Automatic annotation (TrEMBL), chains A, B:
Ranges for domain DNA polymerase III beta sliding clamp central: 129-239
Domain DNA polymerase III beta sliding clamp N-terminal: residue ranges: 1-119
GO MF entries: DNA-directed DNA polymerase activity
Family: Belongs to the beta sliding clamp family.
Quaternary data: Forms a ring-shaped head-to-tail homodimer around DNA.
All residue ranges annotated as the DNA polymerase III beta sliding clamp C-terminal domain in the record: 244-363
Classification lineage: Bacteria, Bacillati, Bacillota, Clostridia, Eubacteriales
UniProt cross-references to Pfam families, sorted A to Z: DNA_pol3_beta, DNA_pol3_beta_2, DNA_pol3_beta_3
Name listed for the protein in its UniProt record: Beta sliding clamp
Amino acid sequence: MKFTCAKNKLQEAISIAQKAVTGKSPMPILQGIHISAKSAQLTLIGSDIDLSIETKIAADIQEEGTIVVDSKLFGEIIRKLPNSSVQISTIDNNSIEIICEKSKFTLIHMDADEFPNLPNINENMIFSIRQKVLKNMIKGTIFAIAQDETRPILTGILFEVNDEKLNLVALDGYRLALRSNSIDNDNTINAVIPGKTLSELAKILSEDEESVNITFTPNHILFNLGQTKIISRLLEGEFIRYNSIIPEEYNLKVTAKRGELLNCIERASLMAKDGNTNLIKFDIKDDNLIITSNSQLGKVREELNIILQGDELQIAFNSKYLIDVLKIIDEEEIILEFSSSVSPCVIKNIDNTKYTYLVLPVRLLNA
Amino acid sequence: MKFTCAKNKLQEAISIAQKAVTGKSPMPILQGIHISAKSAQLTLIGSDIDLSIETKIAADIQEEGTIVVDSKLFGEIIRKLPNSSVQISTIDNNSIEIICEKSKFTLIHMDADEFPNLPNINENMIFSIRQKVLKNMIKGTIFAIAQDETRPILTGILFEVNDEKLNLVALDGYRLALRSNSIDNDNTINAVIPGKTLSELAKILSEDEESVNITFTPNHILFNLGQTKIISRLLEGEFIRYNSIIPEEYNLKVTAKRGELLNCIERASLMAKDGNTNLIKFDIKDDNLIITSNSQLGKVREELNIILQGDELQIAFNSKYLIDVLKIIDEEEIILEFSSSVSPCVIKNIDNTKYTYLVLPVRLLNA
C-alpha cells in the first residue's frame, strides 16, 4: 500500500472514524482504524462492533492495499504533523512509514483480515432529513435517556416514523423528552438507537443545509452523510408506550420566561444540594411563581412573574430535571401545564408542536 | 452587620479571597470567608494559615460587623445572582440574609472570633515591580518546582534580591529555571516562597502597568497590590546554591527556531511514551539536528535546520523537560549550549539576560 494525501483531510477523516473506537475493547484489533487505499480513494473504518463509522477521502493512491493501525497513536501522529502532504506506505516488518516534510515515522500495523466486516446493509433510504435538524432533535432528547442499565431499552432513543413525522423520544422513569419533525415518508417504523451511537452521530452531523439519508433494517440503522456512513445495531425489545404517559388535559397553565425561570431554579438549587435531593418547591398563585428550598445551611426564596390560567398549586421537583429541560430549549417563552401536585408537569413552547417535555414531581409527605 | 454593594464587585472580591481557601482544612472555620464591614469598606479574607489573602471593596455600610460564611456556597450564591445591587445583613439564628432583586437567601454564618488572625506584618516595602513582569517571571519558573515533598524547599521558588536584580529560581533535580529582572533596590535577600502561594498570586496579578509592593519579614512575604494583600509564610531551610550548577562554559552552541524545535520534539515524544521514559535522542551535526525515538510500536526521525558552532554531539533527554521549557519561552530564536552528552543543556534566548533554563540529559548505556 502506498498513498499521498493532504494532512488536514486525513486528520479530519481519522477524527470521524475514531468516534466508533472505544479504546476499551477486549479485541485489540478494535483499537485500530481500518484503512484501505483503492481507486483514488482512502476508506477509513472505526468500529466497536455495535457501532461502525466509515468515511472516505480522496487520495493519490500509488499502490492499493489495506491495513489496520492503532487509532490513538496514528491519530496523534497525523495531528502533530505539519500542515502539508503526507505519504504513507507499507514497509517490512508489518510496519508503515509515514513521511511528511522532514518527519518520518515507522509504525507497526495489524492484520486487516482480523478486522470485523461491517454489517451487510442493502441501502434503501426510508427518509432524508437535514443534518442540523436531526442534530438538534438528538441534542434535545439525549439528556433524558436512562443512565443505568437496569432497563437497557431506556439507554436508547426511540425513532418513531408515522403520519409523515419523525419523533425522537427518550425517557428514564423521571422525565420524558419528545422532539418531532415532519418528513416526507408515510411508512410506520419503530426503532431504538443506542445513546452512544447518537451522541457520536451528533458530533459528526453538520450545522448547514446538507441532508442525511436513513435506512432501517430489522437489526440496524444506517445514516448516510455522503462521504461518511454510520451503522449501528438497534436496541432489542419494546420501547415504553410513551403516548399514554403524556397527559392530554391540564388544570393550570403557566406562561413563563425561560431564562428567568432557569436562573431562579438554578439559584434555588444551590440550597437543595444538601443530601443530594435537589428538592425545590413551587408555589403558584396570582400570576406569581414562588420557588423555595432549604437545607441545614440555610434557605432560599425566589419570585417570578408568570401568567397563570387556572387554579393555584403547590408542587415539588428535583431541580436537576427542570434545569436539564430549560437549558436545552431555545425559545424564550414557554408553557408549563400542571394537573395536580402528584401529576407530571408538561413543558412546551408557545407554538407547541416541535417538542414536549415531561417531568414527574416529587411527592411531599405533607402534600 | 448590614451593607449593600454591587454584585459584580462582591463576586470579584470573593473570587480573590477564595484563592487562599483550600476547602480541605481540618479547621471548618478555614472553609469560610471572613467578611468585615467598617467605614464604607468591606474587607474579605480567605486563609489556609500558610497563605492569607485580604481584599477590600467599597460598600454602603448601614451597620458595621464581622462574620464568616462558607466560602464555596456564598461564592456560588453571589455568582448566580442577577447583576444588580446586593443587600446583606445579619438576622437571628446565626444567619445572614442576602437580598438581590426578587431573590432572598438565608445562610448560616460562623463565629468570626474563631477565624485566625493574619500575621502581624509591619509593612516596609523592599521593592516594587510591575505586576505583569512578576506574573511572567512566576509563570516562567513555577513549572520547574519539585512535585514531590521529599525536599520541601524545592516545592518553592527562590526570590533572590542582589545587585539591583530580582532572580526567581526553581529546580527539581532534573531541570532548573531562572528568570531575572532589574529592580530599584540594593539589598540582599534570599527567601523561598511556596509554589501554591505563587500559583495563586499569578492568577491575581494584573496584565497591565500596575505595580506590586513586596515586603519581607524573617518568616513571611507580603505582596501589596493596593486593594489586595497576599501574605504567605516562607519555606524554611537553605535553597540549593544554584549558581554552581549552571555551566559557564560550553563546547557547542546551537541556534534554533523555538516553534519548529518544539513541534519536532512533541512529535518525537509520541513514540517515547512507551514505558513512560519519554526518551528522545539528539544527533547534532553539520547544521542539522536529528531527533529520534523508538518504542515497541515503532520509531520516529525528525530533522531540523540549526546553526551549529562547535563539535558534533549525541545526547538524550526526557522530552517532557524540554517541552516544558520551549512552551514557556516567548522568543522565536533560542540558543542551546552543550558541553558533553552527560552535562546539562543550557537554553537561553538570543539576548540572553532575562532567563536561563537548564535541563539534565539522560545518560544512555551505550553513550
